[in-house]
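Methods: example folding runs. The two proteins below were folded one after another, and each record is reproduced exactly as written to the output file, sequence line first and structure-token line second.
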Amino acid sequence: MPPIYISYLNRLDVAALAMTDAEILAAIETALAAQGRGEAVIEPRVHLEPGVANGHFNVLRGSLGGSIDAAGVKVVGDFVDNYKKSLPSELAVLTLFDRFDGRPKAILDASGITDMRTGAVTAIGAKYLARKGSKVLGHIGARGTAYWNVRLLDSLFDFDEIRVHSRRPESRDGFAAKLAADLGKPVVATEDWRSCVAGADIVVEASRLDAPQPLLKTDWIKPGAFVVPYGTMSAVELSLTDIMSKLVVDDWGQCKGGKFGSLRAHVETGRLSEATLHAELGQIVAGLKPGRERDDETILFWHRGLSLSDIALGHAMLAKGERLGIGQRLRFA
């Protein structure tokens, strides 16, 4: 057997890559288009609940063709009380493989990848589904993927007004301050959900609840808005889907089953089904189905997180690391 080497990028390496907003968005949009064209295999995520803490592991698996050609598995822990230990809520590892012969190709710290790719999917969803003139963002949630949601959305829309809210004042105030410094514009930390999302052009709900609770009220959603609810535990009313002109998901296979997810109750009650689903985002990115067609459409996009996005961004990071000499090469066999 010939020698096998794997590339290794730790958290410091990932930070040193300094992936630009454009590089992140391009990698994820490429993967979504490949998925839409049927050049990918994705299996619904599975969960492992250790039962010893307030959290669980997600295991995501997929194989991506097109210009990327890689298979991958990501394991990510989602432990909501980690802030008490000064740890991120999500810690993850991504493994990449040759999809033709199974050789391991790389191991990457995927905590940053998880945040970046989730924000990129939110932003690309808005690119195709939000009104072009959207200028007000209301974002619920201040941890994990929240930063990249706001940053990448703003890179596309250059908002006039950004509002953020989370349960703990120190969390939302610190989040708003960091965003304001990085984006170079004011960011308002609101004291309640309504003042954050009412009348916003784009609404993102990325809360971290212990149990489902309908805190985001349907009546607060502006006609013509683009709404992205994706908390692990649902924070929306059942009536939210009733006002939508289009319902879009990232992958129907993983959205229609499982225990967790913002619209789990909507699937179980038939409000979101194959009959009511407009499209998967990849089909829209690939040009196979229309995105937003009128300014007065109110559109919802539910994304659960795609292994294909992890694979695509990991692949882009490896390529940049090779160009810049960042990362380590390890002997596997």
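Second run, written to the same file directly after the first:
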Amino acid sequence: MREFTFVIEYDAGTDPVMDVCIEHPSVLAHSLDGFVTGDRFWRIERISGPEPALEAIETVRFDGTKCGESVTEHDCEAARYHDVLERDEGELVLYTYLEDITRCESIHTLAGKHLPSGLVFETRREGSRHHWRVLMRSDANVGVLYDEIGARLRDGLTFRMGHLRDADGWRRDAFATLSMPDEQRTALEAAVAGGYYETPRETTLDAIADDLSIPRSTLSYRLRRAETTLARRFVGEDGDRWLR
């Protein structure tokens, strides 16, 4: 099996889902998509972030008049089905199924036109960037796909090539995606950026807490919770939750 990776960057106002990610930089959305045939595909999407962002993405997904798939000037026409699989504080899991797709120029349909059947897509949305990884049986026509994506992107979208190589790390990455509450992620990012986990330590909990304008005890609690999540996920606990 081979994999092809790339990134599409969006200007504000060019895509309703990406607009939410741009407005809320802490949002992290991972998906696993299966392209069934030229006129249908499914997606399971796990989104973490603040509640207003989750509500906005859910509203977009359930609005049948808004297209969140096309990367060209032509919006996809399709029968759309969406469902909420899980909803918790700071996290949302959505199921999407599209059928009877016509006039659609999404990454799924463009790849399906040139690459062999049986494609699987892993994606990550963060800020203005939508990262793609395509799992495929053969890369014989990847060059054609590359050229077509680059040529057909609508204004405001920018394409950047990643890599083309043997598939690697799908169990580790696509099926073990990490999500945690926004306040824990913020605390962990501040601790890493400040050098708290360096040897010797380059900062203290008091200094990080001051920077974040929270009590030291609150910071300590959030870091412990984040560290517990990381440790359990690393050793495989809760491994059946394959899209985390």
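Comment on the second run: The two ends are 23 Å apart (CA to CA).
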